[in-house]
Structure formats: structure tokens, C-alpha cells
């Protein structure tokens, strides 16, 4: 898969005005991901390493980042579903790859530490690309969601699971602290700091019911088929709304989570100062008055 996004400022010689021309080539071909479009404006990203329980290797992280950087600017995408092929969502980091990293042939501790930091930061950037994608992302979890899987789903907007799902923040069992998002995002998703710490320190498995009470997920489906249908139903509703309103809401929710209320109010005021001039506002108002469904242009 390749993404070509060329932005060119072209000077119009006749009137001196600058115009922004955009060329976007979106082609979603990956080794570790399968990308489909099950409905208009809805994309489905499936982890495609079922033989390895969808374990997350360096290729996976590179392709995930590339995929979501494409989706961020794809005008045909307004909502994204994320799921895993096979028996489960993901088994987390590929321990084979992790052991190879640990055996890097570098004698100096400081230099080896810098190499580790580069890898960790690269993995962090890959998962953060989900959060930075302006389109709402819905995680659909069945079977196991372990370690890095928790890092990944906490970067998503909405999380649903099936009854056979189970979760574990497993990193302490392999001798490390979770370092690509769980410790930073998980506590902000739930208000139960004590339970979050218990799950992190003990690495014990927890069930969909416990995940629901904790606020990690917001819906439990009977099975994987029902889970996919539920996710698609929600994604279709999101995709039918104004893309300016939905994507602006995500951008402001993320900003508000990480900043003071006063700063967030100033941010949304400046944001809507421009966005309230959109045609989407008029279309929504007219559709509401006529009790009809509005159709919104691509961004």
C-alpha cells in the first residue's frame, strides 16, 4: 500500500492568488493488515496474522502507522472498524521479535539503550496514529486481547467486545512496564485507579463484564458475528453525520483530555470560529426542520 499526498502551492499568474491542489493516491495493500470497505465511508482494518495469533511485529507496527496516516486524509473514510482475524484480537507483542531486540550485538549500555528508545518511540507513534486519525475508530474485540492489544484499543475511540473476549495487561509477566500507551491512556478511560493498578501489577486476566464495569468497553455482543454487525451499525451512523462535526469533535475530545478546561474552551472556540461557517451547519438545520436526512460533501 502506498500513500501519495502531494500538496502544492501554485501561484496563479493572472491574479496572483495562491491555490492549494491536492493529489491523493490511496491503495491499501499490506502483509499484516486486511483493509476493506463494508459500507459507504466505512473502512474495516483487520489484523491479518491469525497463524501468529495476530502478534504485533515490526512490520505490523510500520503498516499500522501507514494505514492510519492514509485513513486520516482519505475522503472516502469517515469511520473505521478494527478487528482481528482468527481466534482472537491480538496476543500483543511478538515475543520472538522482542527477544531478538534484547540480544542486539551492542556492548555499550548507553548506546544499546538509545536503540531500544528508538524502537519504543516508533511503536508508540504507530499506535498514536490511531488517536491522531481524525476519523472515529471502533475496536471490535473477540477472543484474546493481551499486552500490546490493550495499548492499541485504548488509542481507539469506541471499544466493543464479544462474550468470549478476555483481556490482560501482560507486560509485567515478561519483565517490563507497558510502554506504548496502556499506562498513559488506560487510567484516563476509567475512574477506578485502584483496579487499573491491580490489573497492571498482577497481569491477571479480566472478563468482558469487568471491562464493561471498568469503562474499557461499552458493549458486549453474543458472538463475533453480532460484534461485527454492532460495530458496522455504529460506524454507519457516524458516517452519516457531518464529517466536519464528527472529526472536529474527536480532535477536541483528545485535546480536552490532555489540557486544562480553560485551554480546551479557548481551543474549541477558535476551532468553531472557522467550522461554524461550513455548509454542513445549514444542511443539518434544514434537514432537521424538514425531518429528512442530510447528505454531506466529502472533506
Tell me what you see in this structure.
With 299 residues, the chain is of the alpha/beta class. It folds into two domains: 2-240, 2-enoyl-CoA Hydratase, Chain A, domain 1, CATH 3.90.226; 243-290, Lyase 2-enoyl-coa Hydratase, Chain  A, domain 2. 46% of the residues lie in helices and 19% in strands. The chain contains eleven helices and ten strands. It has helices spanning 58-73, 95-102, 109-132, 148-153, 182-189, 193-202, 208-214, 224-240, 243-258, 261-275, 279-290; strands spanning 2-11, 18-27, 33-39, 42-47, 79-84, 137-141, 144-146, 158-162, 166-168, 219-221. The strands form three sheets. Strands 3-4-5-6-8-10 form a six-stranded mixed β-sheet, sandwiched between helices. A two-stranded antiparallel ribbon has the order 1-2. Strands 7-9 form a two-stranded parallel sheet. Strand 1 (2-11) and strand 2 form a beta hairpin. Helix 1 packs parallel to helix 3 (109-132) and helix 9 (243-258) packs antiparallel against helix 10 (261-275). The longest helix has 24 residues, at 109-132. The radius of gyration is 21 Å and the shape is globular. It starts with a strand and ends in a 9-residue tail after the last helix. 33% of the residues are buried. It catalyses: (3E,5Z,8Z,11Z,14Z)-eicosapentaenoyl-CoA = (2E,4E,8Z,11Z,14Z)-eicosapentaenoyl-CoA; (3E,5Z)-octadienoyl-CoA = (2E,4E)-octadienoyl-CoA. GO terms for molecular function: delta(3,5)-delta(2,4)-dienoyl-CoA isomerase activity. It comes from Brachionus calyciflorus.
Amino acid at each position: 500500500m502506498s500513500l501519495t499526498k502531494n500538496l502544492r502551492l501554485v501561484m496563479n499568474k493572472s491574479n496572483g492568488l495562491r491555490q492549494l491542489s491536492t493529489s491523493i493516491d490511496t491503495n491499501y495493500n499490506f502483509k499484516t493488515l486486511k483493509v476493506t470497505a463494508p459500507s459507504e465511508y466505512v473502512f474495516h482494518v483487520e489484523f491479518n496474522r491469525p497463524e501468529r495469533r495476530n502478534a504485533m511485529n515490526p512490520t505490523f507496527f510500520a503498516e499500522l502507522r501507514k494505514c492510519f496516516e492514509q485513513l486520516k486524509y482519505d475522503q472516502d473514510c469517515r469511520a473505521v472498524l478494527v478487528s482481528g482475524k482468527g481466534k482472537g484480537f491480538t496476543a500483543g507483542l511478538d515475543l520472538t521479535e522482542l527477544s531478538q531486540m534484547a540480544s542486539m550485538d551492542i556492548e555499550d549500555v548507553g548506546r544499546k539503550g538509545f536503540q531500544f528508545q528508538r524502537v519504543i518511540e516508533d511503536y508508540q507513534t504507530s499506535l498514536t496514529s490511531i488517536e491522531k486519525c481524525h476519523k472515529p475508530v471502533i475496536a471490535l474485540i473477540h477472543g484474546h486481547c493481551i499486552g500490546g492489544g490493550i495499548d492499541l484499543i485504548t488509542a481507539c475511540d469506541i471499544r466493543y467486545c464479544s462474550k468470549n473476549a478476555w483481556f490482560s495487561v501482560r507486560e509485567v509477566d515478561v519483565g517490563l512496564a507497558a510502554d506504548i500507551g496502556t499506562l498513559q491512556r488506560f487510567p484516563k478511560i476509567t475512574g477506578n485507579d485502584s483496579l487499573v493498578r491491580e490489573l497492571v501489577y498482577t497481569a491477571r486476566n479480566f472478563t468482558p463484564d469487568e471491562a464493561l464495569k471498568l469503562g474499557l468497553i461499552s458493549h458486549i455482543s453474543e458472538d463475533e458475528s453480532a460484534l461485527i454487525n454492532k460495530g458496522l451499525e455504529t460506524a454507519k451512523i457516524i458516517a452519516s453525520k457531518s464529517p466536519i462535526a464528527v472529526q472536529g469533535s474527536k480532535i477536541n475530545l483528545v485535546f480536552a483530555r490532555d489540557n486544562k478546561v480553560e485551554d480546551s474552551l479557548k481551543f474549541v472556540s477558535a476551532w468553531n470560529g472557522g467550522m461554524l461557517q461550513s455548509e454542513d451547519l445549514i444542511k443539518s438545520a434544514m434537514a432537521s426542520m424538514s425531518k429528512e436526512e442530510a447528505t454531506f460533501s466529502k472533506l
